[in-house]
Amino acid sequence: MAKLAVFDFDSTLMDGETIDFLAAPLGLEAQVAAITERAMAGELDFFKSLVARVALLEGLEKAKVDAICANLPMMPGAAETVAGLKAKGYTVVCFSGGFRNATKPACEKLGIDADFSNFLHDEEGILTGRVGGEMMYSDAKGDMIVRMQKLLGVGREETLVVGDGANDLSMFAHADTRVAFCAKEVLREAATHCVDTKDLTEVLKIVS
Question: Nearest 5°: phi and psi at 177?
Fold first, then answer.
């Protein structure tokens, strides 16, 4: 039987927020982190918060972005959890409201089957402060998970979702096993399971 596991990236598969790491060289980490915090708590519209945060990255070199993204810290247990789920017959996918610069190398490293995220626009190797992609809206993950389920022939009862913030709520609506990982209260309320230690292998204890 086909099974699907979908993970959020920032603060779930990866230990931190990609955009905070990118803002650090510009000295804007605190400003960006404050917006991220409010968006993940469900206090700000995700699309508006994403556009506002990416605008602050204007002028950053794409090469620097890629170098930072290639060395992001993975969450403890990430690789073991992906391998364990695949051994149980799961297709493992990453949905991120963040950026392909980060999800692509990380997912290749972790052995994840596919990643869906947004693209930072650049001109001649310099970020313009604009962003595009299919993961820019608060309901984007829910829309995408339904498409994945149809594609793979998987029902909600064979679907596992793992996330930490408000923009994961829409995918939680389409899965019977919903893990809130070191999560904001708004997501914990929608979860079937809560993991409060930074160890993704706890997820393996939840699934059959």
Answer: -110, 110
At which residue do the structure tokens 């947004």 appear?
118
Query: pTM for the full model?
Result: 0.94
* Tens of pLDDT, residue by residue, the chain (208 residues): 799 999 999 999 999 999 999 999 989 988 888 888 888 787 888 899 899 999 999 999 999 999 999 999 999 999 999 999 999 999 999 999 999 999 999 999 999 999 999 999 999 999 999 999 999 999 999 999 999 999 999 999 999 999 999 999 999 999 999 999 999 999 999 999 999 999 999 999 999 7
With contact defined as beta carbons under 8 Å apart, do 122 and 36 qualify? no
- Please answer whether residues 116 and 134 qualify as being in contact, where contact means their C-beta atoms are separated by less than 8 angstroms: yes
* Residue of 1, 6, 12, 2 lying closest to 184 (CA atoms): 12
The residues annotated as belonging to the active site are: 8, 10
Q: Which domains does the chain have, with CATH numbers?
A: 3-205 (3.40.50.1000)
Q: Reduced to 3 states, what is the DSSP secondary structure of residue 163?
A: strand
What's the rounded Cα separation, in Å, for the pair 177 and 57?
Answer: 36
Tokens of 39: 């968006």
CA-CA-CA-CA torsion sign (97, 98, 104, 110): negative
Comparing CA positions, the residue from 63, 88, 80, 68 lying closest to residue 23 is: 68
